[in-house]
Amino acid sequence: MSGSEQQTMVALTGARAGTETTQRSRGLPIALRRERRAAWAFLTPALAFFAVFLVLPFGFAAVLAFSTWTGFDLSRIDFTGLHNFAEILSPRSTFVAPILVNTLLFAIGAVAMATVGAIIVAGCIDRLRFQGFWRAVYFLPVVATVVAIGNVWKMMYQPAGLINGLLNRLGVNSIGFLSDPDIALPSVAVVQAWASIGTAVLILTAGLKGIDQTYYEAAALDGAGTFSTFLQITLPLLRPSLLFVLITQFIGGLQSFALIIVMTTDGGPINSTNVAAFEMYQQAFKFGAWGTASAMAMVLFVIIFVITLIQLWIARLGGEETS
């Protein structure tokens, strides 16, 4: 092969290599663009649902919070500035006290009972056979309708109901669970905790399954007792699951109002069970004050957001201290 032929072959080989390199460099962005388009195609239905049923209603509620509207004609939305907020936060308003106070007490009580109960139940299930069956049993109240749960517990709370019947057999006088202003709110909070404990049990049992058993074996070799093992090993390693349970349960407790509607009469007796979500419902659908209801919703949103941030901060602070 002559020198000119060799130079020609080298040039052709170099051109082919350059072409292949160019094609590969061009093919990578094309593949990435295709993956990106596929990802957006799969995300579009969820994003559309999120925009239509969450973002748009939230934006509309934010507009109504600074306006007055009777709920029928969109052309009659009148901007009033901070009037709605000044009205619901004024000293003469019942929104701060007792409504917001009832809401916080209701959420704290329900979350505390549900979380403690879920930890105990999850710990017991983790030691039993047929764990899937027991998890399903405790999850049943979650899939039941709130109306059915509220009516069943309402009958159980009656003066001639099951609970008072058992108390009477023990020599205790009947208790007005839903008629006594001092007991009505805790009584409904018990039902809220009972109805929501199933989700917490599922999450906490999954968290317990994720704990390495070698920690417990080492603790047993060191002679640690059951309670100290629970405090020193189970709770710290269960912190992520507990954080998720506390946040979701607290948000659900602050937003709960269906049980109030079913089990009480307009948040009674004497407004003792009236909570923020129920008051919003009444202002909007009963009195037609959509601006007032939206302002209450914005205030409740800020409270939920701040409480969630505080919970995350406390959890992160605890994680840093124990690390």
Automatic annotation (TrEMBL):
One of its GO terms (biological process) is transmembrane transport. Keywords: Cell membrane, Membrane, Sugar transport, Transmembrane, Transmembrane helix, Transport. GO terms for cellular component: plasma membrane. Gene3D superfamilies: MetI-like. Residues 100-311 form the ABC transmembrane type-1 domain. The chain crosses the membrane at residues 40-66, 99-125, 137-157, 183-208, 241-262, 287-314. Its main location: membrane. It holds the Pfam family BPD_transp_1. It is found in: Cell membrane. InterPro entries: ABC_transporter_permease (IPR051393), MetI-like (IPR000515), MetI-like_sf (IPR035906). It is a multi-pass membrane protein. Belongs to the binding-protein-dependent transport system permease family. This is Multiple sugar transport system permease protein. It comes from Microlunatus soli.
